[in-house]
Every structure is written in C-alpha cells, then in structure tokens.
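re: ur question from yesterday

yeah so i grabbed the chain u mentioned. its 196 aa long if i counted rite. heres the sequnce exactly as i have it in my notes:
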Amino acid sequence: MNRAFYRRATLSAAAGFAIAFAAIAAIGPRARLLWNSSASAPVGLYRVHVGARPRRGIFVAVMPPPGLAAFMVQRRYLGENTPLIKRVAATASARVCRAGAIISINGVARAVALAQDREGRALPGWSGCRTLERGELFLLNAPADSFDSRYFGPLSDQTMIGTVTPILTRVVPDAPWRWHDNATVHADKEVIHAYR
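ran it thru and got these structure tokens back, copy pasting raw so excuse formatting
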C-alpha cells in the first residue's frame, strides 16, 4: 500500500468520526437511543421517551419479564437483557380474546397466531377472553411472525422502558434508509439493541 492510500483512508476515517461526533452533539447529551434489528418493527434507530405514557397505536420498548425473556433467549429470538419494540394494540378496559389462532380486540379480529416458529417449534399460546386491567398492555406488531401478545398475552406497563419514535429506519433489507425528521433527541446517550 502506498502513502496516498493511507492518507485517503485516514482522512475518510477522520471524516466518519467527525460526522458521528457531530450527530451525537446534535442529538444532545442525554439521548437514550435504541437500535432495533428485528423485522417485526422497522429496523433502525429509535429515540426512547422514558416516562411517556403508553397509548394505543404507538411503539414502546419493553423489557420482557424474566420467564418470557429466558424463553426468548433459549429460542434465540433475542439476546439477554434485550428489549423488544412493539406497538400498543390495547390498554386498560379493552377486551382481548384468543380463539384458536384468531386474536381479537373489542370483538374485532386483529391478528392471527402461528402454530410454529420458523424453525418448526411449537409457539406458546393462551386462550379465552379477558378485559385488560389498569397497567396492562396488549402488544401487537403487523408482521404475522412477530413474537408478541398473540403468544404471551398482555404485559404489565412496568416492563415498559418508554415509548419510542423512529429516527432512521427501513422496512425491508433492500429498502433505502428513511430519516424521520420529527425525532428530536434529548435523553441520555445510551444505545440499546432490540430484537424480535
């Protein structure tokens, strides 16, 4: 390798670090960020709004309770201490039901549960109907293979880290990255990885 190559490589690396540091400075000293690498929510970078109230239709970051987390780690659905990004489909006073594979909320079919995962392993399930109590969240993402409340039922809002808004995402692997200019970031700079 010649000197010109090393000089260009050094300048490129320096420019990359400068851009990264400028981005960190622009988002503020207390940004809490989460990287989602699962296709069950758009892949990319999210801002976590710690302390925000969950509402139907928004994405939240949740830390699965220990038993569920252990199951997901054993199945390799996610790594240890990894939060999930899921959309809130229902909150307190909503009636959620699972009849066979059909998931309904307030009498309207909203999702279908699969019998097996991609590896052919049986997926957990629940059956019957219940009215969500205060502090319970029913989480459903659009993809049919999303591991969410259609399999594990409602979660306590105590598992919620915060609501999330996208900063930079893409929906499918070959799609271009999309910048979400509504994402102003101000909490602590901590990037967390999220999977399924």
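noticed a couple things. Confidence is low (pLDDT under 50) at residues 184-191. also DSSP finds three helices and 13 strands in the chain.
anyway ttyl
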